[in-house]
Write a structure and sequence with these properties.
The protein has 91 residues and is mainly α. Helices cover 56% and strands 0% of the residues.
Length: 91
Amino acid sequence: MSDVKDIEQHILRIAQIVIDELRLEDVTQETFDPDLDLVDELGIDSMDLATVALVLQDEYGVSIDEDDYPKLKTLRLIAEYIRTRLQEKAA
């Protein structure tokens, strides 16, 4: 699978997790802008981000350090972070 397709699939799955966990009613998986700043533009607070991070850890079987939460600002950044963690886990 190409890196682009891999990231796009992760973005769609992460979008669905964020939508489900935060009960976002105005957004769909397909319309969720992958570069939208979740904190500044969507208003997600640190507790929401922690909740999403816990679900992502379970979903992908990777560890997300709390110190890394500020790096997880957009769906695309989260997807790249998860992909890197999965690659590290596989190595």
